[in-house]
Amino acid sequence: MTETTQTIPAWHVSGDWFDTCRCDIPCPCSFAQPPTYGECDGVLAWHVREGHYGDVRLDGLNVLMVASFVGNVWAEHSDAYGAVFLDERADEQQREALQMIFGGQAGSWPQQMLTMFAGEMRGMDVAPIAFEADDDLGGWRVSVPGKVEASAVALTGPTTPEGARVQSTNLPGSETGPGQVATWGRTTVNRADAFGFRWDREGRSSKHITFDWTGPD
């Protein structure tokens, strides 16, 4: 589906995003620094709590990406690759809308992020995506059966008040754009076997960040 800026309808999506990656806690990428081990790979998942693309409703739909890169993703980096899964529950119009928004063609933050990432896309598939984020942000999880599984629990420690969350505002490298709140976590599962991406690890960095985008500007 090809649209020009003039034909892209007004749209808005807001919801939950999280990642599970290779970096130590906390992930330096969120602070616009090079990743812990010089390169990073991981799972990125979006859940649209409320959204529309013109008259097409997007509430409750999910998008998942597996990706890797070398260097500082916000500065000089190379060998950037990604692949995307779209929610199988979406009908044709909804899938086209998700592709336009999350593929960066509809403007706003996704366009800025993907222009900066400048990675090679290895493919896209439609699949069942199960996404959950606890209401109290005690944990979050996503899965594509047989291909991707990622989960994390909120970061805590000996001086963290019970039920409190370790959070950051005004991150220098917020993956969902300025003005969002990040909640830090520890990965319990981070597994991928899809589009040539393969890893299986736990105990590394994860963060949940809200997103709220409006386009096409």
How do the strands and helices of this protein lay out in sequence?
Elements (H helix, E strand, L loop, with lengths): L10 E11 L17 E15 L2 E2 L4 E10 L5 E11 L4 H11 L5 H10 L2 E8 L2 E4 L5 E6 L3 E7 L12 E2 L13 E13 L2 E5 L3 E11 L2
Parallel strand pairs: 5-6
Antiparallel strand pairs: 1-2, 1-13, 2-3, 2-4, 4-5, 7-8, 8-9, 9-11, 10-11, 11-12, 11-13
Task: Explain how this protein is built.
The protein is mainly beta. It has helices at 92-102, 108-117, and strands spanning 11-21, 39-53, 56-57, 62-71, 77-87, 120-127, 130-133, 139-144, 148-154, 167-168, 182-194, 197-201, 205-215. Strands 1, 2, 3, 4, 5, 6, 7, 8, 9, 10, 11, 12 and 13 form a 13-stranded mixed β-sheet that branches.
Helix proportion range: under 10%
Summarize the biggest pleated sheet: 13 strands, mixed
Total helical elements: 2
Structural class of the helix and strand makeup?
mainly beta
Give the terminus-to-terminus CA distance: 19 Å
Average pLDDT rating: 95
Please identify the oligomeric state.
single chain
Which blocks of ≥5 consecutive residues have pLDDT under 50?
1-5
CA-atom Rg in angstroms: 16 Å
Shape: globular
Strand % is: over 45%
The helix-strand sequence is EEEEEHHEEEEEEEE
User: How many DSSP E strands?
Assistant: 13
